[in-house]
Amino acid sequence: xxxxxxxxxxxxxxxxxxxxxxxxxxxxxxxxxxxxxxxxxxxxxxxxxxxxxxxxxxxxxxxxxxxxxxxxxxxxxxxxxxxxxxxxxxxxxxxxxxxxxxxxxxxxxxxxxxxxxxxxxxxxxxxxxxxxxxxxxxxxxxxxxxxxxxxxxxxxxxxxxxxxxxxxxxxxxxxxxxxxxxxxxxxxxxxxxxxxxxxxxxxxxxxxxxxxxxxxxxxxxxxxxxxxxxxxxxxxxxxxxxxxxxxxxxxxxxxxxxxxxxxxxxxxxxxxxxxxxxxxxxxxxxxxxxxxxxxxxxxxxxxxxxxxxxxxxxxxxxxxxxxxxxxxxxxxxxxxxxxxxxxxxxxxxxxxxxxxxxxxxxxxxxxxxxxxxxxxxxxxxxxxxxxxxxxxxxxxxxxxxxxxxxxxxxxxxxxxxxxxxxxxxxxxxxxxxxxxxxxxxxxxxxxxxxxxxxxxxxxxxxxxxxxxxxxxxxxxxxxxxxxxxxxxxxxxxxxxxxxx
Length: 500
Hints:
Elements: H1 2-11, E1 15-17, E2 26-36, E3 44-45, E4 52-53, E5 56-59, E6 62-72, E7 75-85, H2 92-105, E8 114-118, H3 141-161, E9 164-174, E10 179-180, E11 182-185, E12 190-192, E13 201-204, E14 211-219, E15 224-231, E16 243-245, H4 249-260, E17 265-270, E18 276-277, H5 284-294, H6 298-317, E19 324-325, E20 327-337, H7 343-356, H8 363-380, E21 385-395, E22 398-402, E23 406-407, H9 409-418, E24 423-427, H10 450-453, E25 458-459, H11 462-467, H12 481-498
Parallel strand pairs: 5-16, 7-8, 15-17, 22-24, 23-25
Antiparallel strand pairs: 1-20, 2-6, 2-9, 2-19, 3-4, 6-7, 9-14, 10-18, 11-12, 11-13, 14-15, 20-21, 21-22
């Protein structure tokens, strides 16, 4: 703990924007809108190191927007605007464009209270012109971002303007969706998706979080308007295919709309899952046998599990609606210590960059080039920091906590275990860059602006860093375990303040 406090005092600049917190409940107002943002032409799909031009649509990618406000009479007490987007990550110029779109249509709304969250599907169009080489016949990523903004502005305005008096409840279910994807071997090293049928296999590295957290919102006629569904697993079951897809969120939404109505808005939020995946790590034959007997695809099986967990929670908590609630939204900016590049890491990454840089389809060239550039920047600044936002939203007796990383499960479990809330929702891949992206440049100079481009990177636990492997090597990380622990402690401070 002394070590962590030392880092906090030495490295962190914490800026609180304190909202008025009512000591009593207030009237809840809710608005919700869903809009299809599937591209009208082929797009390069994000989520792999190589470009994948899409050939069609499996499940539409969508924006799902939820506006929340509490009022005392005509006086607004606090608010939040959720924008859950089927995309791999929120970062760079695209996120800045989304923020500007909201600021334009809702100029009076505090932009820091807009929560842009990625569901982390690996089958949505890339948002960055520089992520992959141009593929003829595909939409330019910046044009796709403009297409999304043209949908986002009217949808956000509609969600805010259609706010109506409402009630809510929350519930906890469970479903096995996520599997820790890091296998540990006898010599201590770890491998993402490592073979578990190996004599030297010893353990799955970390724990898994099978909570399915749900928050339900009803209008005054008891019609279900929207559901927040929090799953600690990225949506990447079909990550290697060539179809635009919301992945498992597509059939989840279909299932829930069959049950609760076609206009239900399902706000999917990806929980702490930096070391998680829906891909089965062992007992695959037994799992596949059960799925085959049910006559379901793998996506349909995942959706069945999530849907059952949500419906089971609904059956219980529909009798515990609350329309007079505490809504309290706080946000802060942290300066976290960046993970330092060692001499050995620099030499390895430089050699890999030199070997790969002439292949335009090799995404690992840029992956390694960023580390070479970081090492050079360390010579000028040996103690670099990374600025990141966090948000904490209290809604009645539950709380939602947001950060921008692929946040390892160990950290999320710490927050849940120590939170004062009855139920705690941890959400990763939310918000991020607030500065313009670097200008298009050749060579290593293209990777000089880390504040704008490095959001959404993995934030590993200490044991993962020691084990190495994808997700925990220097190329995968902007911030190391110390920064992850700072997020835990500062998030909990805010939560505790909200329950004073």
